[in-house]
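Chapter summary example: a protein plus 5-O-phosphono-beta-D-ribofuranose.
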Amino acid sequence: MSSALVSIICGSRSDLATVERGAALLTELAVAHEMRIISAHRAPALLDRYVSAATERGVRVFVCAAGLAAHLAGAVAARTAWPVIGLPMPGGSGGVGGGLDALLSTVQMPPGVPVATVGLGNARNAALLAAQILAISDPALAERIRALRAGQTRAVEDDPLNEGA
Ligand code: RP5
């Protein structure tokens, strides 16, 4: 695969199963991507090195999945001027409000350092948003996204319960 344009970072291996659904969508859309597991709290020096190296290599959008205190997306956004998409995770023992802790922690960034935050565990939306950002300067990718969206529309229209509607 060519050099990754999207980096998906998980705060823990326990986030992986959910996050892989986003990676699968990027594969479907033929968007070059890579995945890492780097906790902002347990491995801050590695995160620091990785964000610089990935940006150097050509990564242009970061998707960051984390639960609980969920500082990963913010920590990445502090280290790059490329878009960062936060994917708050609902899991984690000791979590509050079924993931409300992670959602608020991810979305409530201080002015000047934005994180585009998707819904709890919604890895497909995070991946799709990353692809849409790249599609601004990639007409072929924009066409693949339009086809995907058209497929979603057809699936609703063709639902047997909607016959005759
Ligand atoms: C966060 O805490 C991770 O992103 C994960 O969602 C949660 C629990 O992590 P583990 O204790 O399973 O490693 O840092």
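Key point: The chain has one domain: 6-162.
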